Amino acid sequence: MDTPEQEIALALTSPDVTSSDLAKLIDRAATAAAAADEEVANERKRALDPTVIVDTQAASAAVFNAELKRDRLQAAVPRLQQRFTKLEAAELEYDDIQARRDILAAELRALYPPFVVKLADLMDRIEAIDGEVKRINATKPVDADAANGDGRHLDLVETAARDAGRLNETLIVRDLKLPHWNSADGFAWPPFRLALPFKLSELEESQIRQQRDEVRQRARDIATEVERELATE
Question: Helix count (H) and strand count (E) of the chain?
Fold first, then answer.
């Protein structure tokens, strides 16, 4: 078992000590310092007792050692208290930041999994209808009398939604990146597309669709689990 002096030295230098450890040690150090002060008085009393013949050198050493032990313990108490104050403040700050972090982590978990499923589904549907819009605009009969300036040009979904100029019509669709909640599943948007110089077989295309469906089902399962947790809170 460590002596009080060893415990004090460790408490003043170890990065692993806690404020709770220090609080207990401060009490023990103060008690030990009081006991050491009493020991000094006893050693002095013995050294000065005229009825007893003493070895003055030994008696002097005993008094000195008792005084040194007492003085070291007394000097340690304020240093322990000082470290306790700093460490307690750091721990309180840590606890405060951790609590605030946990609130935001819970908010992100509550918001993101359902959000990413809904938004990725929306982006898929937007991409599909934008393809139809482009097809309609591309097949419009330009030689018809009302072909130009007839107001029948279709804007893309984002342009219509944002009432934006055409230079900005697909900023969200183009730039948005949505990671799946499960990072191993990659991105919910944009969807993974193979850039190959050849056409895949039906079996290969089916396997890719199946893999994509499995990833999306996992995302929906996570979203459902989060919504269920929120409903029971």
Answer: 6, 2
Q: pLDDT tens across 155-185, in order?
A: 889 888 887 666 566 688 888 999 999 888 8
Count up the domains in the chain and report the number: 2
- 36 with 55, same domain? yes
Give residue 23's domain range: 4-102
For residues 5 and 76, give the distance between their C-alpha atoms in angstroms, rounded to a whole number.
Answer: 9
Question: For 9-51, what is each residue's pLDDT tens digit?
Answer: 989 999 899 999 999 999 999 999 999 999 999 999 999 988 8
- 160 and 85 in one domain? no
φ/ψ (deg, to 5) at 153: -85, 135
Write out the two tokens for 67: 């005084």
The encoded tokens of residue 38 equal 């009493």
29 Cβ contact list (under 8 Å, min separation 6): 4, 8, 73, 76, 77, 80
Q: Residue 114: name the closest of 6, 38, 222 by CA.
A: 222
Picking from 208, 229, 191, the residue whose alpha carbon sits closest to that of residue 114 is 229
- Rounded to whole angstroms, the Cα distance separating 64 from 69 reads 9
Q: Are residues 131 and 204 in the same domain?
A: yes
Which tokens belong to 113? 């999994």
